[in-house]
Amino acid sequence: MSPSSGSGGAGAVACKTVLASSVANVYANEIKQGIQELGRKPKLVGFLSNADPAARMYADWTGKTCEEMGFMFELREVDKEELEDYIVQANEDKDVDGIMIYFPVFGNRQDQYLQQVLSKDKDVEGLSHIYVQNLYHNVRYLDDAKTQKSILPCTPLALVKILEYLGVYNMILPYGNRLYGKTITIVNRSEIVGRPLAALLANDGAVVYSFDIDSVQKFARGEGIRLRSHRVTDVDVKLADIALMSDVIITGVPSENYKFQTQYIKDGAVCINFSTAKNFNPDVKTKSSLYVPSVGKVTVTMLMRNLLRLINNNSRKPDRN
Predict the structure, then answer these.
(1) Which SS3 state, helix, strand or coil, does residue 59 take?
(2) Tens digit of pLDDT for each residue in 59-110?
(3) What phi and psi, each to the nearest 5 degrees, are found at residue 54?
(4) Residue 210's pLDDT is what?
(5) HSE-CB of 197 using CA atoms within 13 angstroms
(6) How far apart are CA 90 and CA 313, in angstroms?
(7) What percent of the chain has pLDDT over 90?
(8) Disulfide-capable partner of 163 in 55, 67, 124, 168 (CB 3.0 to 4.6 Å)?
(9) Which family does the record claim for this protein (predicted)?
(10) Going edge to edge, which strands form the sheet with 216-220?
């Protein structure tokens, strides 16, 4: 039986569109409970130093969701040449619990520098060196006692939570192996989303093919997931061939001109788009079983979850006054 001829009769499509809000709602009570236990409103400061419409939209989402969930959010629009000084001030401000920067700022390596200027104790997006290192090496805690969880970048974490919600993760398997047997295609290898996402999914047991504009890399923990963390190898394969054997296809191409070819989608695959542009054509529903057109609301929810985790981690530090 084909996906377009299910029990609903002629023309029926065996695909369900899942909205990001449905996934975000799963974590709403957890976050509200965390604020209630804290006994105060955590304060998040966002720095906007560009004219990117996507960054502005993300800032608007952040502010609206923070208000709805009981957080304080302050958007500070500053000149990019002065941004470093403002970040340092916020690092030292005891009234500020978390900080985020809406990238790109300079659009080059200076953005990576700014990520490290931000205090790791207030880095809600998990971009500080220690968090990035832990992610790639599959280290999930900051301390030997395993009381302080490492912070993961918000959009990759949002995509993990969406895959859990959709049932792609096999919860019967041991933690860390729950994507064993899954093949995943990611069309994006940005340092902010695509690459860390490939690492996270491979560390959970999947074989991940990461497609960029000029190369393809394979992320995997070896045959039988024998390695503790993933390894990366350059491979010479075609998108069409890999996509047709993939259980999950994730796109993040920031261009209205890019469309993932529906003919490359395996029957019953899960398709997720995290770009602000629509990377899939409407007929994606004739091949996919589950389709998530955007992830922004889950990303913002993970941002607040990370903020509560930072506050919890800081309260557990042995040298805390």
Answers:
(1) helix
(2) 998 999 999 999 999 999 999 999 999 999 999 999 999 999 999 999 889 9
(3) -65, -40
(4) 98
(5) 32
(6) 19
(7) 87
(8) 168
(9) Belongs to the tetrahydrofolate dehydrogenase/cyclohydrolase family.
(10) 16-17, 290-292, 270-273, 248-251, 183-187, 207-211, 216-220, 231-234
Q: What is the mean pLDDT of residues 211-233?
A: 94
CA-to-CA distance for 191 and 319, rounded, in angstroms? 33
Which single residue is written with the structure tokens 């998108």? 239
Determine contact, residues 125/306, Cβ cutoff 8 Å: yes
Q: How far apart are CA 91 and CA 122, in angstroms?
A: 7
Which residues are catalytically annotated? 154
pLDDT for 320? 52
Q: Residue holding tokens 């502005």?
A: 56
pLDDT digits (tens, 9 = 90+) for 239-292: 999 999 999 999 999 999 999 999 999 999 999 999 999 999 999 999 999 999
Rounded to the nearest 10 degrees, what angle do helices 154-165 and 296-315 cross at?
110
Run of H or E residues at 73? strand 72-77
| Cβ pair 69, 304 in contact under 8 A | yes
Within 8 A by CB and 6+ apart from 203, the residues are 138, 176, 221, 229, 230
33 membership: H or E segment, kind and range? helix 20-38
Beta-bridge partner residues of 98? 44
